[in-house]
Amino acid sequence: MQILIVGGGISASYLASNILAKSQDVQITILSDEQYLPYDRIHLCSIISCEKNENELKLDIPSVVDIKLNEKVVSVNIESKTVNTTNNIYSYDKLIIATGSRPKSIFKDNFSNVVTFRSIGDSRKIAGGDWK
Ligand SMILES: Cc1cc2nc3c(=O)[nH]c(=O)nc-3n(C[C@H](O)[C@H](O)[C@H](O)COP(=O)(O)OP(=O)(O)OC[C@H]3O[C@@H](n4cnc5c(N)ncnc54)[C@H](O)[C@@H]3O)c2cc1C
Fold this sequence. Notes:
Layout: E1 2-6, H1 10-22, E2 27-31, H2 45-48, E3 66-68, E4 73-77, E5 82-85, E6 89-91, E7 94-97, H3 120-128
Parallel strand pairs: 1-2, 1-7, 2-3
Antiparallel strand pairs: 4-5, 5-6
The chain binds flavin-adenine dinucleotide.
């Protein structure tokens, strides 16, 4: 059975581990729109303070899980049981949406000196000071 998880956060990582603990007879694919393997957002502060790098925040995911990075899901076709990313089409038997949330900006416009704080990219921006 092919299980497709959309989203590469901590939910996806725990889901994959827990499903595999109950059954080996599944293929699990995680589709993440990020460029980094799933990581622990809770400790992003340590990237800003340069105490850790992104490798040290990586979450444990069984090696049999197929993780596809830079794959943003843009549509789901429930009749053909496929999802479309900007680059590819993936089939599933079971689909799990674990796309989390994004910060809602209080501004309508983007300002070069305002950042949100949610991702490794945001943390690097803040740490680098190039957003001032
Ligand atoms: C700085 C910071 C500190 C935090 N501290 C705490 C804390 O102390 N305690 C606590 O309980 N919680 C904390 N949180 C919140 C916690 O990190 C979140 O609740 C948790 O990350 C949610 O996990 P998730 O997997 O559901 O979603 P997310 O971590 O948001 O992961 C969702 C993933 O799906 C991807 N995605 C979204 N849309 C698509 C798409 N269309 N196609 C493909 N991929 C997609 C996203 O890019 C992301 O990789 C903190 C969050 C931050 C940012």
